[in-house]
């Protein structure tokens, strides 16, 4: 019988980021959340292992008390996250053992307030759905598996998730359903509650501490067997997970942008592997990574309707941006006859790329094939490799002097709408409004109930919302997405346009309008034709040539500080200390909150080794960096650059 426990204290201090040995008390097994004495205080910690003997020379004191018991597999998952993403075990274990607050008052589960109501009856599956489900249940009975569920918006993917979860429950197992945004949970929750009732729990970072505690207790008691949530739900304390569904798997929001910088999709794959579960990644516009690597289950086209016709408005020929004449005409028809529209404005604050208004060319890095970024002093720089050139006076492709910054003028949209189409009701939905699920649900409900409403917003409006009565979806400036200095710019643009097209005409013949200066660019042209396979095949070829994911991994090292010189020098030292990896940079980025920033990007087949090496070099330089006011981040598999 083991008499001792190896415990990681849940602390953020890197100095205490090591295991400590304690004497066991009753009931403490691997996965127990415990209170332990550490130094002069008491800390929460997680038991990661039971051992027979303490390390030599250690005289262990007993664990104080057991606070909670987690499934042991979550310990392995958290330690893997810490290792792969270069975090500490303490920080990664916090993900599985968030702090529990004392209960103050009883309240209704969050699901009762946040769910959108939906029909419950399971329809008879189509042949494609049946085949997909058969593959999933076969894998569920064997040792699990990983699938891409590929089908247009409205092709019945959610129905496959529902029945896959039912199959898991029927075998005495549990299920996790991930959506990329908190804002999308109400709708998914509604559909799952309609099917599974109280067996559904909701987990995401927008819950109050009390709500989270209640939901986790329902899960721990075994009452809740299906967890719906955003990325943190992948760490739900469910036992015996049989199925993990990752909806809208292409969405970059699955990546957490603070330490531990995990990607919930990668963690889902790991958890599925640890539990012999089935992971289902669903999308109408899958990542090239998934297209290349996963067994594909194809659902085909939209049920009960066809995809809308897409019209590309060539801004080189149409005046009136942001409201071109064709767009005005479409909106005018809605103002007159009723209906709804969705207007997508691309993300604000994007890096200014330079493009030609005459021929549509964007100036790109000759080495990295990403948009060059216009810096204040008039130079164009590559944010991947640091390549620098003077901004030209005339377009290198056509000689026109009409070079302009991309994305200017979108702020005028709301004003112009009010002036020209006063009877339309604008409803804003921004990714940068505070993540308040109830306010978002309210805005979406309002849009659903209002005739002549126009939903205006950033990427958020193109994400998986299901609306009825949307007759027009339009992109105001497709070029902003193309001009992002990231090798995924084409992929993101294609996804955005295709996803937005999917929002229109789910129950009526819809129209889609894309305004762009670059109608011939691959993402625009292929999105207009809904040609997903062709886009992904071409994108994979390009990635292979340039050594981008999925063919190689990226590890990004970002340093920021009050002065540009020390930032660059710190990165040069890291670069010089990293042998064996192909390293781009240091490339200067834009300042953020007054701090100078620069980055290295390593292309490698061994991301853990490269990240660990970068971590060591940064740790060795830590005292000097602190003195210079520098901070550093190592990001494994970054999702935006
Ligand atoms: P997706 O998740 O791919 O966008 P959904 O699962 O939401 O698609 O399906 C779109 C619509 O079709 C929903 O209203 C859903 O209830 C309905 N549906 C799904 N599967 C079937 C089916 N086999 N027969 C009839 N209707 C279905
Ligand atoms: Zn030109
Ligand atoms: Zn470059």
Structural class: alpha/beta
Proportion of strand residues: 15-25%
C-alpha-based Rg, rounded: 26 Å
What ligands does this structure carry? adenosine-5'-diphosphate, zinc ion
Number of helices: 19
Amino-to-carboxy terminus distance = 51 Å
Strand order of the largest sheet: 8-9-7-10-11-6-12
Brief sketch in words of this structure:
With 641 residues, the protein is of the alpha/beta class. The protein binds adenosine-5'-diphosphate and zinc ion (ZN) (2 copies).
Draw up the topology in text:
Blueprint: E1 4-9, E2 20-23, E3 32-38, E4 41-51, E5 65-69, H1 72-84, H2 89-96, H3 110-114, H4 127-141, E6 145-151, H5 157-170, E7 174-178, H6 185-196, E8 200-203, H7 209-220, E9 226-229, E10 241-246, H8 264-275, E11 278-283, H9 288-293, E12 295-300, E13 309-314, H10 325-337, E14 340-344, E15 354-356, E16 373-374, E17 379-381, E18 388-390, E19 403-405, H11 413-420, E20 425-429, H12 437-449, E21 453-457, E22 470-475, H13 478-482, H14 489-503, E23 511-516, H15 522-528, H16 532-546, E24 553-561, H17 564-577, E25 582-588, E26 596-604, H18 607-620, H19 622-627, E27 631-636
Parallel strand pairs: 6-11, 6-12, 7-9, 7-10, 8-9, 10-11, 13-23, 14-21, 14-22, 20-21, 22-23
Antiparallel strand pairs: 1-2, 1-4, 3-4, 3-5, 15-19, 16-17, 17-18, 24-26, 24-27, 25-26
